[in-house]
């Protein structure tokens, strides 16, 4: 399994972007997002308040503009010659030594400048007197994954599944959310041990449990002392391994679910099955989301409060990127895109019902890259789980959560 993107692929990405800049008759294209620069050069960094720029100008080699203290570090950027790594003094800095001064020197004196949709307004304001055009050039490049990228995401998916399995194994009736957070270190250690050239800036693990009824608010912040008792709980793991991400999530129970929970769980699973059945190249993403909305409406789970969100989104360098499987999306599925599939049902006061998988679009349909069991029996706690309870007691004692 591939553990790093080949240098030749990074160079090809830069070459393809430069061709697209020429085709669109831009004088230059300015890349400023951390993920985009990483995608094009393989160089991870932490920008903090100091902006980083990749400049793509027709007829010139690509160049970087970075803070002076990062210049040596960024020499690892693939496809950028050392002499094309420019630096500004600091942020803030006096007139003449600011990043905006250096950027003005490096940009062509005339012509339209392309910028990313995510470009901060203050960057556009600093390019005084120039015509700017917002273009999603890098985002479009990232939509369809290469064979190496798919291998990287497949690897991240293994660790995402590992995390979900650990979260559920550590859970029991009466456990607290903190016991799940404590499992994060095991997955992080496994990644560090097995990934060559591990880079702290390009690897992340987020593991958490949303205990019912908080699971009905999937973007809330789980509280350490929340108890796993009645209702549906959500185990979520997001991993990023050498830059590439995966997502795995399961609804599970620490007590036998009530009738209402069983019905909502079944509706969520059927919505998920129907979404999977539509995955194939050429299908409009909005059609999938609309079909699931219609199904859940017929099941009695109509309205934004019970649905809350779209069916899914793209996964790659980011855990959320295009294509967007949502009503209103103009995206169409294509072979070698990677997406999440996660239709949900949310019942305030009871909890949320959502499985999420990382899924590869193939030439004939799809392949699930995350494979944690998804049936109700597998996701309902059985037995006393004495080892988990003992470990949980020690964690609660250390944190004072009694």
Automatic annotation (TrEMBL):
This is Xaa-Pro peptidase family protein. InterPro entries: Creatin/AminoP/Spt16_N (IPR029149), Creatinase/aminopeptidase-like (IPR036005), Creatinase_N (IPR000587), Pept_M24 (IPR000994), Peptidase_M24B (IPR050659). Residues 13-143 form the Creatinase N-terminal domain. Residues 153-363 form the Peptidase M24 domain. It holds the Pfam family Creatinase_N. PANTHER family: AMINOPEPTIDASE (PTHR46112), XAA-PRO AMINOPEPTIDASE P-RELATED (PTHR46112:SF2).
